[in-house]
Automatic annotation (TrEMBL):
This is D-alanine aminotransferase. Its cofactor is pyridoxal 5'-phosphate. Homodimer. It comes from Neobacillus novalis. The keyword Transferase applies. Keywords: Aminotransferase, Pyridoxal phosphate, Transferase. Belongs to the class-IV pyridoxal-phosphate-dependent aminotransferase family. PANTHER family: AMINO-ACID AMINOTRANSFERASE (PTHR42743), D-ALANINE AMINOTRANSFERASE (PTHR42743:SF10). One of its GO terms (cellular component) is cytosol. Acts on the D-isomers of alanine, leucine, aspartate, glutamate, aminobutyrate, norvaline and asparagine. The enzyme transfers an amino group from a substrate D-amino acid to the pyridoxal phosphate cofactor to form pyridoxamine and an alpha-keto acid in the first half-reaction.
Amino acid sequence: MGFAILNGKIIDRSEAKVDIEDRGYQFGDGVYEVIRVYNGKMFTAVEHLERFVKSSNSIGISLPYKTAELSGLLEKLIDKNNLQLGIIYMQLTRGVAPRNHAFPTERITPTLTAYTKEFARPDESMKTGVKTILTEDIRWLRCDIKSLNLLGNSLAKQKAAEAGCFEAIQHRDENVTEGSSSNIYIVKNGVVITHESNNLILKGITKDVILDLCLANNIPVEERTFTLEELASADEVFLSSTTSEVMPIVGIGDKKVTEGQPGPVTKKLQKLFQQEIEKQCNKLN
Ligand SMILES: Cc1ncc(COP(=O)(O)O)c(C=O)c1O
């Protein structure tokens, strides 16, 4: 089972237990991050830790560790668990207090937990592409916070799973927002188009890497809202996330995208993304 972090200490994972009145458990009152590990090294660790702090500050929880300290602790956890290829899941809640919707008036210590998991790269799906469904975005208006409240996302993903699909593409009325656990992109006439990073989507770390790669490689980008109609008439569609990297979308509902094959811009971005991983985490097998 390996080791986990509980409140700054690395302990046996079977002993990492949280109180039933932890506000994360009762209210989803907390935030989380998922960090990719390749060759035993964290990819875009600084960016993930910065977003972790930003998310927690935006709901009034302050991380009781310096990010450098936390980063060092996560490195130790990777070593102790001998993790080569996988993820770190990390979450911070407001802490333990008698159940009451309002925050406790006395100071409580936030609960920090983290563990690792082996997780292969989705090589086969990245080659063939994945199918998706469309679903109404029923979530709250602070999707920019990586909060533990994932019920809307979870219901959307379940719909996709029941349809035998990889992801649910969410939309608010006519506008596409993001996937249940990914950002969504269309390509039209060589231009990569993706929702602007505002309160309606999570500002993906993978999205930021992809947009930087586009900029550095003269691939035009528009960060703006796009419609269901634009999605339906796109030349290519893909999604991105920490675990899915650059993932081609080859089906939306009953409709095929790019004749059921990953498109050229998507494939180029996959190649550039792989180079970026290797730059940060050494050559991949
Ligand atoms: C709702 C949502 N949007 C976007 C993303 C992609 O973010 P990242 O690239 O940082 O993994 C995720 C990742 O889990 C997510 O849950």
